[in-house]
Amino acid sequence: MCRRLLAAFSLALLAVPAAALDYRSVAVPAAILYDAPSQAGKKLYLMRELTPVEVVVRVGPWTKVRDLEGTLAWIEGRNLAERRTLVVSATSAEIRQSANASASVLAELAKGVAVDYLEPGEPGWVKVRHRDGVTGYVRTIQVWGL
Fold it and tell me: What is the CB neighbour count within 10 angstroms for residue 73?
C-alpha cells in the first residue's frame, strides 16, 4: 500500500501544471512539436524561433504548449526560453510612440511578426520592441502571447 502511494505521489510530481497564462518563446531555429512527451511520439510540425507559446503542463523534460491557433502539442523544454515574445495575430499592427491611437506610428508589422514583450501599457496596450530596435506600444487585440 505504501509503495502504491509513493509511486502515485512521484508520478504526480512529474506532471507539474504551469502557472496561469505562463508564456515562453521557442529558443531554437526550428523546434519539433510532438503528439506525446517523447521523441518516439508522432512529429506534428516545426515551430520557428521566437514563436510564443502558452505553457499548459510540464512533464519531466517535456512541456505541453498551446500555440496561436489553439493547437496543443509537446515540445522538449530545453527548446523554450524565458524570453517573452508576442506575435501579431491581426492582419497588421502598428507600433506607436505612446499608448494612444492618435500617437505617431513608428513601424507597421505584418501578421506573424514576433516582437519582444517589455511591459504592460495603458489598458488595451502593451509595450514592445521589434528586432530592428523600434520600441513602442501596440494594441493588445493585435497580438497574441499575453
Answer: 23
* CATH code, residues 15-83: 2.30.30.40
Question: Which of the residue ranges 4-18, 80-94, 105-119 would you say has the lowest mean pLDDT?
Answer: 4-18
13-64: per-residue pLDDT in tens? 444 444 457 999 999 999 999 999 999 999 999 999 999 999 999 999 999 9
Is there a contact between 13 and 23 (Cβ–Cβ < 8 Å)?
A: no
pTM of the model: 0.79
Report the chain's C-alpha Rg in angstroms.
18
Return the domain boundaries, the chain: 15-83, 86-144
| Contact by Cβ (8 Å): 62, 77 | yes
Query: What grid cell was written down for 114?
Result: 514576433
CATH superfamily, region 86-144: SH3 Domains (2.30.30.40)
